[in-house]
Amino acid sequence: MNGLPARRLLFVHAHPDDESINNGVTMAKYAAQGAHVALVTCTLGEEGEVIPPALAHLTADRDDTLGPHRIGELAAAMAELGVHDHRFLGGPGRFRDSGMMGAPQNRRPEAFWSADVDEAAAYLVEVIRELRPQVLVTYDPDGGYGHPDHIQAHRVAMRAAELAAETAYRRDLGDPHTIGKIYWNRVPLSVVEEGFARLGAARTEMSFPGLASPRDVPGVVDDERITAEIDADEALVAAKTAAMRAHATQIAVDGSFFALSNDLAQPLFAREYYELVEGRPGAAAGEREHDLFAGVEA
Ligand SMILES: [Zn+2]
């Protein structure tokens, strides 16, 4: 099909950096296996804060050039993961970062949060019908942690999956395609607890001044809800870590911990976890999949 590899996997994220934090190992693993790994990022992350003091002038309240800078960071991160197909929803700058929930930026007409879901989803339908992925990965309805752009990315991704499959919908955007499996990004509670225990034990050797809390980790659920886990070897963890470092305005990494602009350390998770919300599980009842394509016909 269009010369694309047999296995095709699509990730939908809100801002540059979310993909490396949540899915860096998974993306690198499938890219190395020759699957087609595609990323659609919905905004440029223009409203983010900036960690390196030398780049502080990029922020929205000063030069407002963080968006274009983050396009470069994302490209560098994707090079680390071996992912060649990364795009912005509707093209770079079509939708702007909405800022944190309740911020006045939420209400700007160009903010992703203000976008009509169906209108935004049409851009993604075109990508889905072009790439015909068997697997889609995005956030849960809360966006993992309530950021408006993450919630909106969830809505747009789920709606686009539905519209892409509808035979009567916008044939100018390509032939209908049904995505076989849809997953939400997850972290099991036990893994978060273990990660923060490790963090507490290592705090004196770390460069970060404070510790984040388990509540800062997006997508945490009880272990029973996890349906898939993707294991990492040393090379995959190195690729994920390098991709996170490439987002230098947003992330500082120290060993197996990292911090966002709040400077609070949190564990960097090597293994990545998912909850299957649509499609048939490829593992026996009560067991976790170790491959997101499990049970999928190529
Ligand atoms: Zn984000």
TrEMBL record:
Give the source's domain of life in one word. Answer: Bacteria
Which keywords belong to this entry? Hydrolase, Metal-binding, Zinc
User: What is the uppermost EC class here?
Assistant: hydrolase
What does the record give as the function of this protein? Catalyzes the deacetylation of 1D-myo-inositol 2-acetamido-2-deoxy-alpha-D-glucopyranoside (GlcNAc-Ins) in the mycothiol biosynthesis pathway.
This enzyme's EC code(s): 3.5.1.103
Its required cofactor(s), as named, are:
Zn(2+)
- Reaction equations catalysed: 1D-myo-inositol 2-acetamido-2-deoxy-alpha-D-glucopyranoside + H2O = 1D-myo-inositol 2-amino-2-deoxy-alpha-D-glucopyranoside + acetate
Q: List the Gene3D superfamilies.
A: LmbE-like (3.40.50.10320)
Organism per entry: Streptomyces yangpuensis
Note describing how the cofactor binds:
Binds 1 zinc ion per subunit.
- State what protein this is by name: 1D-myo-inositol 2-acetamido-2-deoxy-alpha-D-glucopyranoside deacetylase
Task: Please name the GO terms that the record assigns under molecular function.
Answer: N-acetylglucosaminylinositol deacetylase activity
